[in-house]
Structure prediction request, 131 residues.
Amino acid sequence: MIPLPGFPLLTQPVPAGLPLPAARFVNDRLSLDAHLIEHHEATFFARVTGDSMTGFGIHDGDLLVVDRALIPTDRSVVIAVVDGEFTVKQLCHLPEGILLRASGEDHGDILVGADQDFAVWGVVRWAIHCV
Prediction:
């Protein structure tokens, strides 16, 4: 028997309120690739450490789905490399240059100087929150 692609999918939403009977609830399959990944050859995953992006819904331990085929635009959340070090931040285009913005006042933004080595590795498409 050839295994089906994907994982079992409940046919009805799971209520966060009153419980529903669980009769005949699995009859479909779901591949997360089909829903989360647009450019398979250009997608990679990254695990987050730290809490500077919680205001954007990205938490310590989350798994990010990052697409290198997308062109980063103003206000995109990106994986960037600044002077050889990775960071996940919101990309902001300012008259002074590039600002990599954290989500809270307690965390420092990074104003990328002209003399710094800077590259965007990809645009964050999804954050899979680990509970």
Summary: The chain has one helix and nine strands. The helical segments are 32-36.
